[in-house]
Amino acid sequence: MHVMAGALIDAGGRVLLAQRPPGKHLAGAWEFPGGKLEPGESPLQGLVRELREELGVEIDPASAVPLTQVPWSYGDRQLLLDTWCVTRWEGVPASLDNQALRWAEPALVDPEALAPADRLILQALCGPRT
Question: I want to staple 50 with a disulfide (CB 3.0 to 4.6 A). Which of 6, 35, 83, 114 is the partner?
């Protein structure tokens, strides 16, 4: 399964995180917002659609830059988490999927609070932690 994730970075360098809601796989874990790529979509098209559906924002595709691809296995779920940095969008990110949202400085995010695959995204944003 190909999954798109957006690392929305504001002017202050903070990144937007979303908390997985109760009843979903990895409920309570924080993640970078996004979702599954649909058949026939390019990664950028899927990212634009997912952030519109999940957060109600229109990203500027010219500001979206590939960050990392994380192949991951959650037991019975195999995925490729394709993450892009986004620095420009229209609208104010809002939870349209009943997820808690928060802005955080990447260096201050506790990796243990993130879904396991998202920890590698954080590492790509911050560099290795010592």
Answer: 35
* Phi, psi dihedral angles at 129 (to 5 degrees): -95, 145
Summarised one tens digit per residue, pLDDT across range 34-69 is 999 999 999 999 999 999 999 999 999 998 999 999
SS3 string, the chain, reads CEEEEEEEECCCCCEEEEECCCCCCCCCCEECCEEECCCCCCHHHHHHHHHHHHHCCEECHHHEEEEEEEEEEECCEEEEEEEEEECCEECCCCCCCCCCEEEECHHHCCHHHECHHHHHHHHHHHCCCC
Per-residue pLDDT at 130: 42
User: Residue 39 corresponds to which tokens in the numbers above?
Assistant: 């058949």
Query: What tokens appear for 70 in the block?
Result: 């994380």
* Cβ–Cβ < 8 Å for 47, 38: no
User: pTM above 0.85?
Assistant: yes
pLDDT score at 77: 78
Contact 91, 58 (CB under 8 A): yes
